[in-house]
What we know:
- The chain is mainly α.
- It has one domain (4-315): ADP-ribosylation/Crystallin J1 (ADP-ribosylglycohydrolase fold), CATH 1.10.4080.10.
- Helix content is 57%, strand content 0%.
- The protein has 16 helices and no strands.
- It has helices spanning 4-18, 26-31, 52-63, 70-83, 97-112, 142-145, 153-160, 167-184, 189-207, 211-215, 218-221, 239-251, 256-264, 270-285, 292-296, 301-315.
- The protein starts with a helix and ends with a helix.
Amino acid sequence: MKTIKDGIMGLAIGDAIGVPVEFQSREELKQNPVVDLRGFGVHYQPPGTWSDDSSLTFCTAEALLKEFNLLEIARNFILWKYRMFWTPHGEVFDIGIQTSRAIERLREIVNSQEYDNLKYLKYDADEYTNGNGSLMRILPLYYCIQGNIEDNFDMIWEVSALTHGHIRSSIACLIYLIMVDELMSGKTKQESYQNTRNRIVGFFQEKDIVDREKQLFDRIVEGDIQLLKVEDIKSTGYVIHTLEASFWCFLNTENYKDCILKAVNLGEDTDTIGAIAGGLAGIYYGAHSFPENWANNLVMLNQIEDLCNRLEARWK
């Protein structure tokens, strides 16, 4: 049986594999590729340490142990940045500029008690705020909207907009969650991807999304991202590059380990691409597919498993 728990665990492990080589170029990694769990490196963190990608995923999951509440998610993000909530070693060592600024804004809203403003953040964004910082943490939201993804686009957008308010980021989150929905139904990767493309075309038509935004997703929706060559795949922190790279790695490998290593060795935003691809691969292949030393060395493994178990129990 497919589970989101396996996806969240797969996300965290993929994140941890990518942390030591974040920002390294593809050429550098060709010379010294990642082939197994590493430690230290760029951020000088012990093996199995995950980054903000997993932290904010766990913060979202923690909030969803109750009813869906945008304010609870925002409060957890604030606790993470300022009180080290859900950090692997009691410090925030990796945070994007946009995410940092956005959480400062969340704190201002919460302190002023003008909570309704959280729902309006999606109207206060420009296209230069389309990093991958909402895509990396969106997976737990699936619990609230499973089986009815497209009709809950406004909820997806509001959760995305806590840090990344532009519609482009929310569409990327939607595509990812639809792919998750298809995988959860037990379909093959290729069937899931084809159905995802069909559903997105329908969504674009129903919601009358402007052509300029639709065309940015053409390589995933109208084309077949799996068929592109590695040199055509970019691995930057731009949300569309990250989504494309994650899908490409997942569709072009046959097991969890190979998916993560392919994602990380693309270079640049290695932890986030490893995390997002790891979410898909974790769901599809299951926890039994995780390399034993990767899983066993994941920092706070017991706490993460407990969080996932409680979340599964809450939404089953």
